[in-house]
Amino acid sequence: MFKHKKKFGQNFLINKDIIKKIADIGSINKNSSIIEIGPGSGNLTEELLKRNPKGIFAIEFDKDLTSHLDKIKNNYSNFNYKISDALTFNEKSIFKKNSIIFGNLPYNISLKLLIKWIYSDPWPPFYDRMILMFQKEVAERIIATPNHKKYGRISILTNARLDVKFHFNISKTEFNPEPKVESSVLSFTPKKNASFQLKDLSVLSDLTKIIFNTKRKMISKTLKKLLNEQELKIVDFDNIKNLRPENLDFSFYYKLVDLIKSRS
Ligand code: SAM
Question: How confident is the model at residue 264 (pLDDT cuts 50, 70, 90)?
């Protein structure tokens, strides 16, 4: 029925039970304003619409899906969509606050999209919740905690502003066409009191880039380059110098940002 386009990451989820399970996570009611990224064949969209939300606005890049999405629009007055690139689309132009973002994300841009939403301004953001599907390997990096091999920049950036929850994995056989890898569904809620402002996030992003660049090495050399004597004392350098970046807690990285911010 649909010509799948690899360049758009079009792997459509075909198992109806799994589609229902994803929709369930959103606890949708008549007040829900939903933004869906990449509706594709509309399989998840129609499941969400059955639950009578206030509105669903979908952003789809592939203009060849227009006539299909028009059919959905004709059947549901609370559905609308735009052919546009989700990476540059301004979601706030549609729903100013309390939105739920749903997306079985195109794998090639999934992390870029997550980063875009982490960097939302102002904070708390226009969304209350995000229910997103990633490649399993990427999901593991997002939810990783200290002392795990996959812990790194994206885990730390995510944790700065979002609470994240793992829901379930999805086998590649549940898609058409079958992707090369397994998938995982995660949900996110904004930390309401996150003290991280945009410029702090940029500092955190730069710092973690430098530090995780030498992921396998002990932290001492990098920290000595980044911090002055007094700052080294504040982070208890002597006690942590033999650790690797993956052994240091989220709070360590957030403290580094504070130190750098407070330089006059
Ligand atoms: N929602 C469907 C499902 O669950 O089976 C399709 C998911 S498919 C993995 C990803 C969808 O995102 C495709 O429909 C694809 O065309 C669309 N897409 C790809 N790049 C996009 C972009 N930059 N902006 C918006 N949609 C995009």
Answer: low
- Dump the DSSP string for the chain: -----GGGT--EE--HHHHHHHHHHT---TT-EEEEE--TTSHHHHHHHHT--SEEEEEE--GGGHHHHHHHHHH-TTEEEEES-TTT--GGGT--SSEEEEEE--GGGHHHHHHHHHT-SSSS-SEEEEEEEEEHHHHHHHH--TTSTT-SHHHHHHHHHEEEEEEEEE-GGGEES--SS-EEEEEEEE-TT----HHHHHHHHHHHHHHHHTTTS-SHHHHHHHS-HHHHHHTTHHHHTT--GGGS-HHHHHHHHHHHHT--
Compute the distance from residue 105 Cα to the ligand 1 centre, in Å: 6
**Cβ(81) to ligand 1 under 6 A?**
no
193 CA from centroid of ligand 1 (Å): 32
CB of 62 closer than 6 A to ligand 1?
Answer: yes
The predicted-structure confidence for 41-54, as pLDDT tens digits, reads as follows 999 999 999 999 99
Range of the domain at 56: 6-190
pTM comes to 0.95
Q: 143 and 229 in one domain?
A: no
Q: What's the pLDDT tens digit per position in 174-205?
A: 999 999 999 999 999 999 877 788 889 999 99
Q: Which of 190, 212, 228 finishes a domain?
A: 190
